[in-house]
């Protein structure tokens, strides 16, 4: 209750301050707890690599993970993509969830949209790793560009699209409670 009196009344200021606070919380938590520990990052990197290898197999390619390194995706036994900790999507999940938490809207809407959005970003990241493996196998000279630019653009465009969808679905700003179809 005391904290509420310090939060600005205007929803846009509340969003900015909440978002900045969540970003600071994420940075401190990651830099001092999750990052140095490394277990969550490594488990997620292994999982993304395994899912990408499974997606490649489902598409008819000889995808697998290397027996000596479960974060290395192989195609027909040849190394293709190493899923490092910065590329496992953890920061993207936090970024997506932080926006939804900071944006005005009911907790009930946030409770279903955050897991749905994180799952969508996860699947996009798995598809990205599988596509990079194919890129490495068939067009190796474009891997660096696609990894750093093309797939980064696609990932952030998808997150922006999800945020836009959330903003239209989940916002209470400027919507009177008597508007047809309004559910709090």
Write a structural description.
Helix 2 crosses helix 4. Helix content is 65%, strand content 9%. The protein is elongated, with a radius of gyration of 20 Å. By secondary structure, the protein is mainly alpha-helical. It has 5 helices and 3 strands; from the N terminus they run ααβββααα. It has a domain at 8-47 and 86-170. The protein has a 3-stranded antiparallel β-sheet, with helices on one face. A hairpin with a 2-residue loop joins strand 1 and strand 2.
Look at the structure and give the mean pLDDT: 86
Helix content: 55-70%
Would you tell me the structural class of the helices and strands? mainly alpha
Q: Secondary-structure element order, as H and E? A: HHEEEHHH
Shape: elongated
Beta-strand percent range: 5-15%
> Which regions have little confidence, pLDDT < 50, spanning 5+ residues?
none
**Number of helix segments?**
5
| Through-space gap between termini | 22 Å
The main sheet comes to: 3 strands, antiparallel
- Using the CA coordinates, give the radius of gyration: 20 Å
How many β-strands, per DSSP?
Answer: 3
The neighbouring-strand order within the major sheet is 1-2-3
In a nutshell, what does this entry contain?
This protein is mostly helical. It has helices at 11-37, 39-58, 90-102, 107-138, 143-170, and strands spanning 63-66, 69-75, 78-82. The protein contains five helices and three strands.
Write the layout of secondary structure elements.
Elements: H1 11-37, H2 39-58, E1 63-66, E2 69-75, E3 78-82, H3 90-102, H4 107-138, H5 143-170
Antiparallel strand pairs: 1-2, 2-3
Helix pairs in contact: 1-3, 2-4, 3-4, 3-5, 4-5
